[in-house]
Amino acid sequence: MKSKRIIVIVAVLIMTLAATACSGNDKASDTASPTDIPVVATDVDVVVEGRLVPRESEQLSFFTVGQVEEILVEEGDQVKKGDILARLGNREAIEAAIAGAELELLAAQQAYDSLNENVEVARSEAVKAVAAANKAVRDAQYQLDNFLIPVTQEGLTALEGVELMQQKLDEARQAFEPYKFESFSGSVRNTFKTKLDNAQSDYNAAVRRLEYETALADAEAVLEKSLRDYKELQSGPNPDQEAAAQARIKAAETSLASAKATLDDLQLVASIDGTVVKQDLIVGQQVVAGQAMIIIADFSQMYAETDDLTEIEVVKVSVGQNVTVVPDALSDLELVGTVDRISDVFEEKRGDITYTARILLDDVDPRLRWGMTVVITFNK
User: Fold this and answer.
1) What is the Cα 73 distance to its own chain's centre?
2) At what angle do helices 92-117 and 119-145 cross, to 10 degrees?
3) H-state helical runs in the chain
4) Which tens digit of pLDDT belongs to each residue from 99-129?
5) Distance between CA 253 and CA 248 in Å, rounded?
6) Do 317 and 295 meet the contact criterion of CB atoms below 8 Å apart?
7) How far apart are CA 23 and CA 151, in angstroms?
8) What is d(CA 47, CA 172) in angstroms, rounded to the nearest whole number?
9) Which of 79, 138, 330, 351 is most buried, taking the most CB atoms under 10 A from its CB?
10) What's the whole-number mean pLDDT along residues 120-141?
C-alpha cells in the first residue's frame, strides 16, 4: 500500500506547486504588493493494506507422542470448546488407573464422612466409659476405706506389709514344720500352729490391702484416660484419625488428577467454538508433541487486521473510529466497520515504526475468505 500513500503525497505536492506558480505570476504583475501563499490542506484519510481474519483461531497439537487411534472430526465440522477431536492409542491402562483412583477417592471420602458421623456415637461411648470408670474408682475406694489394717502392718506401705508378712509367714511355717505331724492334742504343736495361722492371716490381709490399693490406682488411671478421651471428642473426631483421613483423600485426589492429566495428553480437545478449517491427522499416524495437527477458526465475526500503521498514522486512529474496507478480490464490495483494538507494541518494518490495528466488520459477505487482502480506509 506504499503506492497509495505516494499517490496522495504526489497530489498534495501538485496542489502546492500550482498554488506557488499562481502566486509567482501575481508578483510579476505587481511587485509592490506581495500576496501570501495559501495553506494546503493535508488532513486526509489514512489508507493502509490489511488482511481478513476470523474472530479467533487456534492451532491444536498433542502434548505427548503416540499413534493416532481415532479421529472424530473432518474439515468443515462445527465444534464446541471441550469437544474431543482425536485420540491417541494405549489408553486402557490409564483409564483403569482413573477408575481405581476414583474408587479410592470414594472410599477415602466415605471413611472421612463416617469418622465425622461417628463422633456423636463416640461421645456417647466416652460418657459411658467415664461413668464406668467413676464407679470402679468409688468401689475400689470403698473397699480400701473399709479395710482394717492389722496392728502388725501399721506404719507400713501395702508393698512393705506384703514383704514383711511374707517373711513372718515363712518363719512361722518353718517353725511349725517339725510339729505338723504330731497329735492335734499336743500343746507345742498347737502353739506353733496358732502362730502359723496368725502369720497366714496377716499375710492375706497384707495382700488384700495391696490388691485394693492397686485396684484403686488402676481405676483412677482408667478414669483419667476416659476423661481425656471425652474431652478430645468435644472438638470433633480424633485429630490423628482426622489428619490420616484427610491425607488419604488428598493422596487419592492427586492420583486421580495425575491419571486424568495423562489421559488428557492422549486427547486433542477443542479450545474454542468454531469450524475445523484444517485437519492433518490419519489413523495409525505417529505424531510428536507440539506439532500442529488441527486448526479451528471462529467465523462468527470477521475482522480486518493491518500491521502497516506508521507512527505518523497511528495517532490519527482511535478505537471506535469508522472504517471502510474494500477487498482486493472484490473491488465493488465496500464493507464498513469500527476500530476494535490498536496494539501498544510496535514493530520495525523496512525502517518504519508500525502498529497493528484490528477492525470489526459490521457485515460479512459469503464470498470473503480468511487471509484475503483488503484496502482499509480510516475515515476522518
Assistant:
1) 31
2) 40
3) 2-29, 92-117, 119-145, 158-176, 187-233, 239-264, 311-314
4) 999 999 999 999 888 887 777 777 788 888 9
5) 9
6) no
7) 149
8) 131
9) 79
10) 88
Model pLDDT for residues 342-368, shown as the tens digit of each residue:
999 999 988 889 999 999 999 888 899
Least confident range from 23-27, 219-223, 254-258, 318-322: namely 23-27
CA-CA distances (angstroms) from residue 366 to 18, 174, 315, 330, 333?
46, 125, 33, 12, 12
What's the average model confidence in pLDDT over 228-252?
Answer: 85
Residue 141 has pLDDT above 90, yes or no: yes
Q: Which residues lie closer than 8 Å to 55 by C-beta, 6 or more apart? A: 298, 299, 300, 301, 302, 303
Q: How far apart are CA 190 and CA 205, in angstroms?
A: 22
By three-state DSSP, how is residue 312 classified?
helix
Confidence of residue 35 (pLDDT cuts 50, 70, 90): very low
Place of cell 480400701: 144
pLDDT interval class at 59 (50, 70, 90):
very high
At residue 282, what is the residue type?
I
pLDDT at 23 over 50: no
The residues, any chain, with a CB within 8 Å of residue 248's CB and separated by 6 or more, are 108, 111, 112
Assigned C-alpha cell, 174: 518353718
8: three-class secondary structure by DSSP? helix
CATH number of the 45-88+273-378 domain: 2.40.30.170
Burial-class residue 155 by CB neighbours within 10 Å (0-12, 13-18, 19+).
Answer: exposed
Q: What pTM does this model have?
A: 0.53
pLDDT value at residue 8? 40
Contact 325, 371 (CB under 8 A): no
Which of 324, 345, 343 minimizes the C-alpha distance to 334?
324
CA–CA distance, 243 with 251 (Å, rounded to integer): 12
Task: Please report, for the chain, the start and end positions of each structural domain, with discontinuous segments joined by +.
Answer: 1-41, 45-88+273-378, 92-117+242-264, 119-236
